[in-house]
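Before going further, learn to read the protein records used in this course. A complete example follows; check for yourself that the lines match position by position.
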Amino acid sequence: MWAEKKEATLTQKNWCFLCVFLTPGKGGHIDTLYPSTQKHQLERLDKKMGVNLTTSNKETVNKSDVLFLAVKPHIIPFVLDEIGPDIEDRHLIVSCAAGVTISSIEKKLLQYRSAPKVMRCMTNTPVVVKEGATVYATGTHAEVEDGKLLEQLMASVGFCTEVEEDLIDAVTGLSGSGPAYAFTALDALADGGVKMGLPRRLAVRLGAQALLGAAKMLLESEQHPGQLKDNVCSPGGATIHALHFLESGGFRSLLINAVEASCIRTRELQYLADQERISPAAIKKTTLDKVLQQPGVTVGGVANGNSKSGLSLFNNRGSGLKKKN
């Protein structure tokens, strides 16, 4: 199992909820696997947070109750092949892979367990600052308590709610990809400020604060965004002239089309995952091929060397997260 560097960096920020293999285990432990290239970063995390490190996939599964799978969609089958034999009735499998359906995971795990408990979730990168947006759907064998546990875990890093599974692709297009839309808009706003004479650092800060404040106003007031927009626009003022310019450029349509494009691509990824079982060594445009070159790295049971490479993080301090009775 592997992670892109950007994901490994995120795991250091806040409880590694966006990692390759995150597991809150018994007693509030959290486990994760990592590419060997991230060893030094996680050793620093070990010293800072007091965690125990291990390099065994089997140990990660055996010491955990909830297993988060956050790899590329087409890698999910290989991950399931690797961990499947060690899955027990107590395990809850949570997939964060875009487009991968609960039924496809259940079908795979039925080779190993008669009633695998599977859930699917979609979250986003702001979980690293405890402002994430997460939705989840429950599988055939998952129980109400499992949903409560997942919601409790993800609510600790932002908003979390349950939805029907057929809505998750749309969620991916909106909040899953949403931070990228916001960062792109913020970058452009800052450029506008710089063009008008503002220092870059100040322009970025002002733009970010404007977006943060607007989002907070919307959530706290529960007013329609259109009403809040109208409140900013005075007759004949600067803001309404700016909005007219945005409308003439198709601003709304571009955002709607962006959400649609992300949603459609998510469904395409599921189709590709269903149609092709690509050899991990042949997967391109990821860091997987680089990771496989490292001795001892294993992905879905395919290893380069004699030992498996991974890392489990066992937090020595209880998180206080327990299943509700």
Q: What stands out?
A: Residues 1-30, 278-325 have pLDDT under 50 and may be disordered. The first helix runs from residue 5 to 13. The radius of gyration is 22 Å. The chain is about 45% helix and 15% strand.
